[in-house]
Specification:
This protein is of the alpha+beta class and 272 residues long. The longest helix is centred in the middle third of the chain and has 41 residues.
Length: 272
């Protein structure tokens, strides 16, 4: 079999790799990937099997959204070292994207759970639940700083942990159980954002695993202390003592913008 009989037309070669032949024509015009042979009489392009590995590398890099200019630079200086460096970079970026997608999935599941809860919940119910430990980004609540400034600070903090947007995590406020026991119901100490993927890093607040009392509140914010009184009464009735912080977060802010309709989820850890 002579060399010419081993050649594939542009249509055959494109079909072999599951792409449009216009893609091969564009790669040729860009100087990224040329055919093995061009018929001088009619300009028809022909390719051989030996070029498949090179094309698949290009297609993989394009799938990873590597710019044409970077791929071209790599193809002009191909070596085991340059290939490894490029792959290391792409794997690292892919890992970041995968963590982001896992975070988005968890957020969607949390939203789904919250919406199901909203449809069936009894706001008067107080119950005991079990929680796994999770990591929180926190900033101190300062009486001198505006709420907008504090949100700005915690948003800046989240960027250290590869959270692309606030929808990647749930967020809320913390108040110490000690303050609540002393009747200081408005003595909030921290804003928090929950990291939606496992991470252990210095500077994070770990919300401990264990049993929590969960309650919900809707109404005038000034009347929230009444809900805490109900929680303490529930604790006394069941022989429970609380510790650490109470964690509050609004669970329906994505379906209403009226403060009086906000539903606050309150979770307080039980001292074991």
């Amino acid at each position: 079999m002579d060399e010419k009989s081993k050649l594939l037309t542009i249509g055959q070669f494109a079909a072999l790799h599951g792409i449009n032949k216009k893609t091969l024509m564009w790669y040729d015009e860009m100087g990224l990937f040329q055919p093995a042979v061009v018929n001088p009489e009619n300009g028809y392009r022909f390719y051989n099997y030996h070029q498949s590995a090179m094309l698949e590398t290009i297609l993989l890099l394009r799938e990873l959204e590597v710019p044409i200019s970077e791929i071209k630079k790599f193809m002009e200086n191909r070596s085991a070292r340059s290939m490894k460096e490029l792959l290391d970079e792409q794997i690292e970026e892919l890992d970041v994207n995968m963590r982001h997608l896992k975070a988005v999935r968890k957020t969607l599941c949390n939203y789904q759970e919250n919406m199901d809860m909203l449809l069936h919940m009894d706001l008067s119910q107080i119950c005991i639940i079990s929680k796994k430990a999770c990591s929180l980004v926190t900033v101190e609540i300062s009486q001198d700083a505006s709420y907008d400034k504090q949100v700005e600070l915690i948003t800046a903090e989240t960027q250290k942990y590869q959270l692309r947007r606030l929808h990647d995590a749930s967020y809320g406020t913390m108040i110490s159980v000690e303050s609540l026991y002393h009747g200081a119901y408005h003595d909030y100490s921290k804003l928090f954002i929950e990291i939606p993927f496992p991470i252990r890093q210095k500077g994070l607040h770990v919300q401990p695993s264990g049993r929590y009392v969960r309650a919900f509140y809707q109404g005038d914010w000034e009347a929230m202390p009444e809900k805490y009184e109900e929680i303490f009464a529930f604790g006394r009735e069941h022989g429970l003592e609380f510790t650490g912080f109470s964690y509050e977060k609004i669970i329906n802010s994505n379906v209403t913008d009226r403060m009086e309709e906000y539903i606050v989820q309150i979770e307080m850890p039980v001292l074991e």
